Fold these 3 entries.
Entry 1:
Amino acid sequence: MRSLLITLFFISSIGFQQAPPKPVEGTFLEPADSFNKGRAIGTSIFYGSGWIGSTLALQYVWYKDFEKSSFQFFDDSREWMQMDKMGHAYSGWTFSRLAGDLYEWSGVDHKKSAIIGGSLGFAYLSTFEFLDAYNEAWGFSWSDLGANFLGSAIYTSQEYFWNDQRIKLKFSFSNSGLSEYRPNVLGNSFSTRLLKDYNGQTYWLSFNPWVIANKESKIPEWITIAAGYSIHNHLIGDGSTYVYDDGTSTLSFTPFRQYYLSLDVDFEKIPTESRGLKLLFRALNYVKVPFPALEFSQNGVGFKPFYF
């Protein structure tokens, strides 16, 4: 939940902080042809101040209500059917991409930028794992750290070998209707449900098979396939069955996994010469476009005419 909160904040402004994929010549947004010391310093200050500022904000806003402890470990690898780990991987990919793009804009070699971006994205998110380690409610989680690394590695490996993000990580959310049974855990408003209710969240891998294979196709590059993962009926972290009793009726909720297959749009592959549109498309590309979807779960195969 915490990593998603930080990520969504950055996504809200990310399109205006990154250089477009194919910048217009002669503009400030055009990546430098060679190392630009001023841009590199500005980029480092921007990323560093965001790093320090968000860490301090969480320390005094998020963590202040929890009891402190000595350094401790916490194995949460089996909680919430790994949906929180999906969020960590998504955040690792997002922050790594932001850092890598900014350093490439500063004139740093592309492959070096990819390595720097991945390293900074991983290191930034790892900061919060160490903050968790000194809180009584949590602890240092190796599985969280691994998910952070996975997201950063997905970014770095693609940029290093393909010079492109052919596989993009995306996010979508819809109201699961389950928060009314545990509003203190799953949220009692749209904003809190967005962050807390894993049942409403879906994480996606969005890709075009022909683009990955580097082969020509009559299908436009911007039309992609999206494979998604979510959960349902999950009201307790450890995945046990939750029984709701309001005195007049009793309901039982047993969690299960859901897998989705859908279509999506890679906005960055849509041809345009408009700098404004390129920036907008960049920002939109972190969220899955609503489309019909096939659902695979323990209940069999279902069809969602409009799924987000």
Note: The first helix runs from residue 2 to 14.
Entry 2:
Amino acid sequence: MKRMGMMFRAKANKALDRAEDPRETLDYSYQKQLELLQKVRRGVADVATSRKRLELQLGQLRNQSGKLEEQGRKALALGREDLAREALSRRAALQQQVTDLETQHQTLQSEEEKLTLAAQRLQAKVDAFRTRKETIKATYTAAQAQTRIGEAFSGISEEMGDVGLAIQRAEDKTAQLQARAGAIDELMASGALEDPSGMAKDDIQAELDRLSGGSDVELELQRMKAELAGSSPQQAIESGQSGQPGQSAPQAQPAQQPENPQRSGPDFGKH
């Protein structure tokens, strides 16, 4: 089971590696960094808001403290020491709150400064990553285009391989049809196959065609012999025609006998 699980994970990893596009991965990483930067910025804004609220509260408490101090002075001026004591007591309580809020304000202000610095650094990293991302994407796209062009020229790409196979099959079928047509022509010429049009050659015409072809061969042979012997091709052809087999020598015409002269002489019949 462990082996099967390992094989399944290996095949799945290989399939994912083939399906993975580095450009999409880079874009996804950049999107995540932008989301993180946005969260940091929202954190800075929240801390700044809290700091501002503390500043408003501090302003109100300080105003109340100043008002109580003024009331205590008036009470003392009027001889109301008890009222002055009460006003100073309330002022002391407010002063404690002001001190606590000032401490929180300093903490928030320090946290705001840290988050602001972190946001600035993260912004710089995101900008640098974006520049590098676009460079890598452009380089990857160019390399992919060069690879496809090289595969197209070499014929090893899948698309060009399919085209090459189609061309090879077409050429094979064409050669097969040509061979079949030539074989049929030879069989029809030899008489092994009959012409369905009913215009097949008879035996006499076939024999005459064969003899004509043989005569052409003999004439060509005589011409070549004449060229080798130094005689003119026309003389060789004439001599070849006179010596071809199957042709009888011209018979000598019999000498013309002179007409018998009529005997001249006395007419013996006449007495």
Note: The first helix runs from residue 2 to 19.
Entry 3:
Amino acid sequence: MDSADLLVLRTLRDWRRAGRRARLVTVLRTWGSSPRPPGSILALADDGELVGSVSGGCIEDDLVHRYAGQDEGAGPPQRLTYGLSADEAHRFGLPCGGTMELLVERDPSAGELDALVHRLSAGCLVRRRVRLSDGQATLEEADQPQGLQVADGQVAQTFGPGWRMLLIGAGQLAEYLATMAAFSGFAVTVCDPREPHRAAWRVDGTTLVHDMPDDAVTAFRPDRRSAVIALTHDPKLDDLALMDALQTQAFYVGAIGSRRNSEARRLRLAEHFGLSADELRRLRGPIGLYIGSKTPAEIAVSVMAEVLAVKNGVALPRQMQVEAAKELLGA
């Protein structure tokens, strides 16, 4: 499954290949409340067709009205600001006090877009720089994700799989979770050394590996934008992944299991693998938010919600966690 950005860039590339005039619109800055964060993009074709989003719809409508049918050719990018006045904010559906600045690039090079799409499709992290004086765009390899930057007469934006997830186990729960993670912008790798489980895997757009879990974690090289989740219920597999993942910078490390199994897991990791108390405090389990989930699909929703909350820096009340909620309910 394509990420939202890749879908926009691939569509724009195809339009330009076909000789269609088109624009790439990027949210540069926001002040106050805003529907979409800096770095959000959309592509607008000369006939008014568009893909992507920079707002809830009103600004898109104005961009179509402003640019559709125009034949200006290539040239320096244009900067637009919406929401400076209360009337304009109301007109364009911006929240009270919200202001948004956009960059509009005219007819980006099909060749440059093709190179960008090719590298992103291969899983690369790419920084795209646009010179504001003339719209010249260049690509360079990036070693870590960065937010959009405007400085020294240019705009720099990093594209690619900045968020990654490694799942241990290729069962039904992993299929639901991998699907949700993919449409949430994660590049997903699934590890399962058990051939029958791998043979049944049916989620397109994921990377499936057969390594032992500890080797898979080492190869995955988790960083601060990585999640590692063990789903096999088999200590021989899950523990191997967790003992290595807890010693990385992964922002989320967790494992499926009951409260009793989760406590037994912590004891094993401490006694047999020598993990410290600080490392074990990072281990999430039972994973997920308590929503009364029973089916694999509902459990995946619960887990994905917790992953996204941690990713977004949301401090979750303890009573929303499975263990605390069940204690309160006497379950």
Note: The longest strand covers residues 22-31.
